[in-house]
Model the fold of this input.
Amino acid sequence: MSPDSPPLGSVRSAAEVNEHIRALWLRAGGSLSAQERAEYELLVVEWAAAIRGHVVKAA
Done:
């Protein structure tokens, strides 16, 4: 995980995680290294969890 990643157990909004994903792609110039790909995958999992949490709360 990157140094900007929150500690385990902390919760960020889907919008905040999405901003981190967008920033990662911008920094990478559209082509991810192996390390950036691993960070991207973690961010996508975190984003999906945030979305699911939001949907459950709305229900």
